[in-house]
Design goal:
Beta-Lactamase, binds ligand C2E, binds magnesium ion
Length: 686
């Protein structure tokens, strides 16, 4: 019997006995009072009556009344006393009944609870057995699996990671089976990361535990580990255990880092590349916009770097770039960003500028680094650079505008004599606008085929007869009329539009030639100018061959013209390509000779047929003796190399006479004919 119930029972018995003694006492009290009052009544009432009533008859009557009075009074007294005690008795019985009922329901509840408890105990037993079984299974999996599975008891700190130990080259008992032991192998820089990842997952902020960190292997080297896992929580949300796997990702990490380097760093100089620079520029733009600050962007382009590359080889070129990068790194200050944008071009970003002088100083410092020669393979090289500068937000408010204008300014610096720096100015902006307009127009011109081929006859000096013609492109502009190449050829070359134009010219010329030869049996030679971009094509000779076959042209009737600068860009390629073209039977002319390098050395190595002396030399013939002697020397040298000489830009009779004297074979110029439309040329030869 539960204690509570016992106590209640005791309380009831005790109150019962208390009531019994009370009743006894009251009974006694009533009896004694009654005894006293009765005795007193018997003793005193007759004497009082005898004093008060003297008449015996009257006395007898009062005596009777007195007797009745006594009986009534005692009866009343008895009633009051008994009634009071009975009421009290009834009350306590009622109370007793209620307590008994309460007691009974408490006992029933108690019984139900006991039954439930017994049930739960049974279930718990089953669960515990199940748990033991899974734990056993789990241990078997951990030990028998190929995966680097780990299992951590969060309450005891015991951690099983045998496979990981093996992976790192440790013996099983060399490292304790504990979380602390594992943490002691983690790279000090990664410990926090590991703990944070764990906390995040336990707190429910991450669906699973994921972390990458380095673990020290037996040789003392760190290996990159990818760890994943999941936590088991108890009802209060406390971590009970965690389990997961370790994966060795050292190799992937190394590759990723290499890829990152490749994506963002220039391999040659170790500087950031264009992508990294753009990324940085984006951040600088937004931070300067927010803080209303200015920054400067400098584009540094080496002057005539191509020359070094072509004449000294790429190894020297690369070494030069490395040294330039090193010098630039030394002059840039913390906060400034230096990058190689590709080729021989570098970017420098100077944030938070307060005055233009700061930028001027930086640009001057950049140029000053070129005053000292570069030492490569025990030889000294001098090199210069041109710098173009734009300032945010003065010159532009977005990346592309700033870079484009800095590029324009840099080109202005180059055009202005190199080894200079130039800020972008608004006059340049206007030029850029008109340039862009032209570029757009040109695009339409290609689509609408607004081009024409004009022909300028080339004459035999000896016979005075038309020997052939040079094909010269014209743009039949819808509003501006027929435009010469000087208006558009530079843009077309810079934007690459020259390629489709050049192809169109070549094909048109061959078409024209076919109609001429059907009407005349003269063996004319037609000459076509090739642009630098066209000449770079690896399959140029094949393309020419296909066209010749398509239009059924005799290869000897075709001549191509290239300039010295084009040839010099890649001498080796030029020699090989020219040889292939000549093998087809097509003639090769070197155009505008005298305006570029005019080096006799390379002239010897080039497979050529014709040398075209530039009109600037011919212009001075007859006026300047020195010029005449140069022309005569060029002609002699060309003849020594078995080259035919064509003189361009002949405008006066005197000039023809001089050229004739020097032994020049062919002439071309306004004196004879200006370039003319195909129709006119066809009539002329017919
Ligand atoms: P170029 O190949 O040196 O062509 C000769 C230029 O000299 C032509 O200018 C011609 O009109 C001009 N000329 C001829 N005789 C005289 C003369 O007596 N006096 C003067 N002052 N000039 C004379 P044009 O047609 O304006 O062509 C300029 C340049 O544009 C050409 O120079 C050539 O380099 C380029 N070009 C022309 N057509 C093509 C083409 O189809 N493709 C490519 N890539 N370039 C072309
Ligand atoms: Mg030409
Ligand atoms: Mg020329």
């Amino acid at each position: 019997m539960p204690e509570q119930e016992q106590r209640k029972d005791r309380e009831i018995t005790w109150s019962n006995s208390l009531e019994a003694t009370n009743l006894d006492r009251i009974t006694w009290k009533i009896t004694i009072i009654y005894l006293i009052l009765g005795t007193l009544w018997i003793l005193l009432s007759d004497q009082v009556l005898a004093v008060l009533v003297q008449d015996p008859e009257q006395y007898q009557t009062v005596q009777t009344y007195k007797g009745w009075f006594y009986v009534v009074m005692t009866a009343l007294l008895l009633y009051v006393l008994l009634n009071g005690q009975m009421k009290k008795l009834k009350d306590s019985r009622q109370k007793l009944l209620v307590s008994y009922e309460e007691l009974e329901s408490a006992y029933e509840e108690l019984l139900a609870m006991e039954e439930k408890l017994e049930n739960q105990y049974g279930q718990l037993n089953v669960k515990q057995n199940e748990l033991l079984e899974t734990e056993e299974k789990y241990r078997l999996i951990v030990e028998g699996s190929n995966e680097n599975i780990w299992d951590l008891n969060k309450q005891t700190g015991v951690m099983l990671f045998s496979r990981t130990k093996e992976m790192l080259g440790y013996e099983e008992d060399e490292i304790e089976d504990s979380h602390d032991a594992l943490l002691s192998l983690v790279h000090p820089e990664d410990v926090l990361t590991v703990q944070k990842a764990e906390e995040q997952h336990i707190a429910g902020k991450a669906p699973y535990y994921y972390c990458e960190f380095r673990l020290k292997d037996k040789t003392g080297e760190y290996r990159w580990i990818q760890s994943r896992g999941k936590v088991v929580l108890d009802e209060d949300g406390n971590a009970v255990r965690m389990a997961g796997s370790h994966l060795d990702v050292t190799e992937q990490k190394r590759m990723m880092m290499e890829m990152y380097d490749m994506a963002f760093y220039d391999k040659l100089t170790g500087l950031g590349n264009r992508t990294l620079f753009y990324d940085h520029l984006k951040k600088i733009l937004s931070s300067h916009q927010r803080r209303k600050k200015r920054f400067a962007l400098l584009i540094v382009d080496l002057d005539d770097f191509k020359r070094i590359n072509d004449t000294r080889g790429h190894r020297v070129g690369d070494e030069m770039l490395k040294q330039v990068a090193l010098r630039f790194s030394e002059l840039t200050e913390p906060g400034e960003m230096l990058a190689r944008s590709g080729g021989d071009e570098f970017f420098i970003l100077k944030p938070g500028i307060k005055s233009i002088e700061e930028v001027e100083n930086l640009a001057a410092k950049v140029l000053k680094t070129f005053e000292i020669p570069f030492n490569i393979d025990e030889a000294e090289f001098f090199m210069g650079a041109s710098v173009g500068i734009t300032v945010y937000p003065d010159d532009g408010e977005d990346r592309d505008t700033l870079i484009q204008y800095a590029d324009v300014a840099m080109n202005e610096a180059k055009a202005g004599g190199k080894n200079k720096y130039r800020f972008f100015d608004h006059n340049i902006r206007e030029r850029v606008a008109s340039w862009m307009e032209k570029e757009k127009d040109l695009r339409y011109a290609i689509l609408r085929e607004e081009f024409l081929v004009y022909y300028q006859p080339v004459l035999d000096v000896a016979s005075g007869r038309i020997h052939g013609a040079e094909a010269l492109v014209r743009w039949n502009h819808p509003t501006k009329g027929v435009l010469s190449p000087s208006y558009f050829i530079e843009i077309a070359e810079e934007t690459g539009q020259i390629v489709p134009i050049g192809q169109w010219v070549m094909e048109t010329v061959l078409k024209h030639y076919k109609t001429w030869s059907s009407k005349s049996d003269r063996n004319l030679l037609v000459s076509v100018n090739l642009s630098p971009a066209q000449f770079k094509r690896q399959d140029l000779h094949e393309w020419i061959k296909e066209l010749i076959m398509k239009y059924d042209m005799k290869p000897e009737a075709l001549q191509i013209e290239i300039t010295e600068t084009v040839v010099m860009e890649n001498l080796q390629h030029s020699i090989e390509m020219l040889e292939k073209i000549r093998k087809l039977g097509v003639k090769v002319a070197l155009d505008d000779f005298g305006t570029g390098y005019s080096s006799l050395n390379y002239l010897r190595t080039l497979p050529l047929d014709i040398l075209k002396i530039d009109k600037s030399f011919i212009h001075h013939l007859g006026k300047d003796r020195k010029e005449a002697s140069i022309v005569s020397q060029i002609i002699n040298m060309a003849h020594e190399l078995n080259l035919t000489v064509t003189a361009e830009g002949v405008e006066q009779k005197k000039q023809i006479q001089t050229l004739q004297r020097f032994g020049c074979e062919e002439v071309q110029g306004y004196y004879f004919y200006r370039p003319m439309p195909e129709e006119s040329f066809r009539k002329l030869i017919e």
